[in-house]
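In the current project phase, work has continued on tokenised descriptions of protein folds. One protein thus recorded appears below exactly as we store it.

——
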Amino acid sequence: MASHPQSGVVMQATGGIRKFRWATGNKGKSGGVRVIYYFHNKSIPLFLLTVFGKNEKDNLSKSERNELAKFANLLSKNYGEPNV
């Protein structure tokens, strides 16, 4: 993530929160984990927010995404440029 912080897909309606799938063992991406993180630009640190197994849940709920959007805005305000 540190080498390629923009490699994750930006999740809709989250204020810039990104996700990517990571394969674990020989299971491929379908048996792996989802990594949720925030990266705005190089002047703000990359924040790992959560990791969960795809066998635990498919994706984040709308309410979870709404909370992440608020959090992304706080991170952006506290670490530099306003979130766009």
User: Anything to note?
Assistant: The chain has one domain: 9-79. Strands lie at 9-10, 17-22, 33-38, 47-53. Residues 10 and 38 are 9 Å apart (CA to CA).
